[in-house]
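User: two proteins, same treatment. go.

Assistant:
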Amino acid sequence: MRVEKVMARAIEIFCLAVLACALFMCCGRKAEQTSQPEVPGELKIAVIPKGTTHEFWKAIHAGAVQASRELGVEVIWKGPQKEDDRAQQIIVVEDFINRGVDGIVLAPLDDRALCRPVQDAVREGIPVVIIDSGLQGEDYVSFVATDNYKGGVLAAKRLGDLLGGEGNIFLIRYQEGSASTAKRESGFLDTITSDFPNISLLVHDQYAGATTETAYQLAENLLGRFPEVDGIFCPNESSTFGTLRALQEFGLAGKVKFVGFDSSPKLVQALREEHIHGLVLQNPMKMGYLGVKQMVSHLKGEKIESRVDTGVYLATRENMDKPEIKVLLWPDFSRYLD
């Protein structure tokens, strides 16, 4: 009888041990499962622009917020104030890596300097989507941007036609290391030299820098040195606005044929007044929106495109009031940004 009791007790202990083990394994699996986001609403996506002051980046921000609301994810927006602060952008990327965000959407200031931070993110299991401007290497899951070379081609054809295929022009560059504007400059230079052989480039190797003020100073200097200039192309918002100010200061606005890139209220006003004769437009809201959407789709295990073209357009005084152009000249931020 005593032996039977001992056997029964042993069986009871064994069963309890098996049950405890099963419960431990179940809890372990549950903990493992809940350590990963279960629904899109738990995803945290860092969106890092080149800068935070230009209208272009405000539109990118608005598009990212639009995607976050539609997809139920959290977007954390942070970037350097100035578009030449590579060190600050690297710090922002490293900070988001340390915070353990689920994904990073990045517009790299420099196509080389940001390679290492992106590689660090990938090593930590944080995927990266690149927007706006290219990055060397292949350490990202998708690239969402304008066809910037095509934008330069559009600008060259517009300026060449305005000049009737003859004259002296400036190509004012933006800044070294910026892949997006370098593509625009290449598209412009290639097309001007091939399609308009009677147009002379007085300047094609000068950089405006990251601010309106540095662009103004360069343009002021060039206009003083080359009063015979007939046309100018600038490849981004700040260089366009700085050059516009210099032309107005010299009393040349409207007289010198001028094609710029991107939009802001003052640039749109200058287009209407024919102080600017063409603006090549991107769709920055779409870029911000699709950058976040591509990241969320990737995190959910869905197949995404490695390259997404967000479109490029030419606005002129003649077409600026057409709905498809007007929406790009005056993007509506009010629904998404305070």
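Protein 2:
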Amino acid sequence: MLTLLNNARIVISLQQVRIVFLVLCFLVLITIAASLNLSSEQMNIEVLKSLAIFLVGVFAATIANSTGAGGGIVFLPVFMSLGFSVTESLATSFAIQCFGMTSGSLSWMIHAHKEKSCFKTHWEQLYPILFIAVLGSCTGLLLAQAYFPKDALNIELLFSIFSLLVGLFILYRTLMNKGQYRKSNILNKKEIIGFMVVSLVGGAITALLSIGIGELLAIYLIWLGYRVNFAIAVAVCVTAMSVLAAVPYYIFQDPAINLSLLLFVAPGALIGGYFANRLTLYLGAYRVKIFISLWIILSACVYFFT
């Protein structure tokens, strides 16, 4: 009974945090709109042009938060196809994900504590694993931002290769290990070291591509035998913290974050993040893993054949 009450209190607290977060997002977007100083005529044109971009935000955040893949899996190719530079595409992708992935992470945390009273062992290692993953990811990301020469790299090619390898691996593991899960969710020493390495590498890749940490964490946890919902929840939460850590690097660069694009895509990302975990629970673990792999493979092929 005490556990039930504690979980109920945490759920209520998280729901309050989500309300505060949404209010802050609203204030930020209002401030951005005011700073752009658009006339009513320009605003009407922007709204018409950006309706499709808004829907991209909904779609990308839904994909990202229902699979654990970062929103950059959609945003980066879309923005670059629209003619934005690599830096602007990366910066804007990170900024939008701050809205969408944080929204999704709060939804997953609320779901985790709702289930914890009935499936305690399923979620008991959530916070220790999150701590290790966030520490490793943010360290790798910040080091990569500081020392990796992004201008000298072919981001499109790296994005394609990484996406293709990730998608094929997830598809293989899903087809070969349907319904097999580990009995204990506690990591041993070797798994902890592996988890730290994966997080560090994933963070570094994320700095370059705006994707990476979520995909690698989901793969590693599924490979270790964790349930898909747990793997996705961890991937979404760590991605949210990683993109928040990535944005300050771009704030004072010019050009970097495209505020006009952010203004219209971020609300869609908030909506997609809010509903994404419901989609995952509705579809079921096996279908979600198949969908993850096929979508990632498709996104990679778009670059290879265009």
